[in-house]
Amino acid sequence: MYSSKITGLGYYVPENVVTNDDLAKLMDTNDAWIQERTGIKERRHIKKGDGNSTSVMGVKAATIALDRAKLAPDAIDMIVFATLSPDMYFPGGGVEVQEMMGMRTIPALDVRNQCSGFVYAISVADQFIKTGMYKNVLVIGSENHSGGLDMSDRGRGVSVIFGDGAGAAVVSRNDSGKGGILSTHLHSEGQHKNELSLQGPSTEYWVPQIIADNPQENIPYYPYMNGQFVFKHAIVRFSEVIQEGLEANNLDVKDIDMLIPHQANLRISQFIQQKLKLTDDQVFNNIQKYGNTTAASIPIALTEAWEQGRIKEGDLVVLAAFGSGFTWGSVIIRW
Ligand code: ACO
């Protein structure tokens, strides 16, 4: 059995900065409320005409990751693309990346696990490498939230949280015999599927029915979130799955050099930090600048932490996510 490691990281966010004050011009909200409840100061939104889309941002992040891994697109054996906001209903973003990067006819797989998407995608890549089937897998998390948010007063409880962006990692066979991805841990609990969801359009709720149900001009197929319910489950599951990963490797929270939590909400990250008794140096947060970018949040944060020299060879790095589904998971890495 082989092992895998992350050999290249990259991220991309659109240039257009949207502050809390900018949002207050569109809906009944304010900077103090958003910062106090979420920690977010600003986020990036794709601007009409800037050429970005979920797949385009994914390609930009992937290009940097490939460059750092010193690999040409031809060396990639598989793409795993995590998003809840693909450019098209179908096909997914993976094939668009394959086409845009001029890659061989390698498999391209889309993962639909929302905030846990990147953790699930890394786990998929890890399994394909462990079995010896592939040597280099490109994992991308990318989201265009701004294209689908309700920017009226009605949407304020959800829309202030989310931002656009993409992150990518090259996962390669680890020939060094040292470290790499030690284990991945995945869970889901479908009974809570409606608590954080976007109902239509889907095969259960297709466009003609949405129009029949909502005869007004603006058809509300916007995300729904039961914020407090999500919050309560997130803090329990995050902590559980981090502990599960550590225990599986006979490690302790004290061994963590860097925890990269999915950037759901600064209060959730702080709660986990407190619960696990982690120091500020052991946890990386950048939600203040980018908002919650769901599947892109972990690779963006991981890349920034690495760029800032906060992750070094030999470090124990833990990725953890919780999100819609509910789905959650962790990845334990010896860097
Ligand atoms: N600006 C100003 N006021 C607002 C806004 C806003 N953007 N949104 C809601 N309010 C108001 C509400 O109308 C309500 O007013 P009322 O008391 O007069 O009825 C008041 O603020 C409190 O609303 P709550 O929804 O109870 O606020 P809460 O303290 O729960 O904070 C939040 C909302 C931030 C969404 C919180 O529940 C939360 O963090 N939940 C976790 C969910 C999360 O992080 N989701 C991220 C995506 S999921 C994931 O990534 C895991």
TrEMBL record:
Residues 246-335 form the Beta-ketoacyl-[acyl-carrier-protein] synthase III C-terminal domain. Belongs to the thiolase-like superfamily. FabH family. Keywords: Acyltransferase, Cytoplasm, Fatty acid biosynthesis, Fatty acid metabolism, Lipid biosynthesis, Lipid metabolism, Multifunctional enzyme, Transferase. Residues 263-267 are annotated as: ACP-binding. This is Beta-ketoacyl-[acyl-carrier-protein] synthase III. Pfam families: ACP_syn_III, ACP_syn_III_C. The last Arg residue of the ACP-binding site is essential for the weak association between ACP/AcpP and FabH.
